[in-house]
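does this look right to u?? arginine version
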Amino acid sequence: MSIIKKLNEDIKTIVEKSGYELQDLVLQPSGRRDLGQFQLNDAMTLAKIYKKAPRIIAEDIVKSLSEDGRFTNLNIAGPGFINITLTDEYLGDLLTKVYEDKNLNIDTRPRKKIVLDYGGANVAKALHVGHLRSANIGEALKRLATLLGYDVVGDAHLGDYGRPLGLVVLEIKKRYPNLPYFDESYTGDFSEIDLPVTNSDLEEIYPYASNKSKEDEGYLEEARAITFKIQNHERGYYDLWKKVVEISKKDIKQVYDMLNVNFELWLGESDAAEYLQELDEIYEKSNVLIESEGAQIIEVKEETDTSPMPPLLYKRSNGTVSYETTDLATILQRQKEINPDEIWYCVDARQSLHFDQVFRAARKVKLVEDRVGLEHIGFGTMNGKDGKPFKTRDGGVMSLKGLINLVEQETKKRINPDTVEEDEKEEVAKTVAIAALKYADLLPFRGTDYIFEPEKFADLEGKTGPYLLYSTIRMKSLLTKASTLEIGKITKFKTETEKDIALTILRLPIILNKSLDSRSLNDITEYIYKLTSLYNKFYAENKILTEEDKELQKSWLTLTKIVYDINMTLLDVLAIKVPEKM
Ligand code: ARG
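got this back:
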């Protein structure tokens, strides 16, 4: 059990000793640090239960607390708020325990298996700004949940199966009609064929084909037919599709690598296709499919709905499978192959209707047991200064690589030429840019939109990735310089700042839990900023390396090491890499 949780339990026991019982008594951090470090506001609740004046109850509790020996400066404010301060000796002991604990005193949870569906890249289309948040939030949630004891499997769930692929294959056919893929008499091995199309060609081909299909009904019809051929594994078309996926996947992997995002599984929509037949059988047997203008739909409306809930499109009239049905087949696949306790989808909040429909349709036929959680973790958009989803200057879609570049231009200006050699500058600027972008992205509550401001994200001061990196590197450098000095025990505090750092350290387990419960990283990004800026204040006020009081110096170095370890752990949870220098 974490120290902070144990302290809460101890206080509860002490309160019980004074004659009062409250199941969910909570020791709060004080809002008035001049009055104490903690605050206990439960005398008011107890007053109602025990029909006594809260002030009397508070006095009884304070009496028991003062007999304990670990608390000091106990006082009662207002009608019965109890202010509690830990003695320096006790606070020091607690911090020494954190230092000694390899796991930084984190509370872990009972094991649970989770599939986390995030990333959402689509094959043959460049990763763009819209893919940033799913990658960042998903990766960080995965790391956080893993740190707290869950068994999490991240799946990229590539969009590799729908009409876009039909369009791309069609356009390749138009440009290179003589490729053996389109020659019915070809009997050779397709893996030996050199496709004259690169990834950047694909990035040009898709938008071209997509636009053309909007103007040309015949072209669209051809693309539909090809999509059908691919989905039915027709020789040639299916092989070309496989090749396109392979080329595109390589590039997608490279961009995710840049963002420190890595998936345990690289499955795609197409991998769920094997389950489509079984899915059909399940839905047909349970009589929920309704014929509608040649298509099949599922009614998912519920009586309590207050907003429109259209039926789910299960199969189009031309036989092709919808995005919804692909997700249903994927649920069946995950259930059979992974058997998770929960499936989380870290996907843009604008897809919430889609997930409502899919989850309801899945529950209707018990695709997963009722105990298995299905959860859409939606997020807001990154906007331009005009408040609309961020675009390139000419109004086009900004690629993720382009976006990273814009931030890199800003971080490059701030690299210190005295510490970073010219030939390392590029590399360091990139690492710092990724940190800047990721930290800014994880700073607001996930549901909130935010504005892309590269100059601000790259700032070395304030709530930014570079500020945290810079500070953390400085802590490391201090610890390196102090490597021959004593470390390992906290016995002394000189100022209140150090005690504030200590109290903030003790709160770490609470922050981690809160963050996982809300499926948002903002509590962690705020916390790491608070801890770091408190530390920097302390650092500016003291000369640690030349301090003459050796007990105090040892306490300070121990405190520094804990803060450094917490920063490294949390930055790793956020999937932010720390450079050696910057
Ligand atoms: N590829 C989809 C898109 O770009 C996102 C996939 C999200 N995951 C899912 N299981 N539907 O919109």
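The longest strand covers residues 71-77. idk if thats expected tbh
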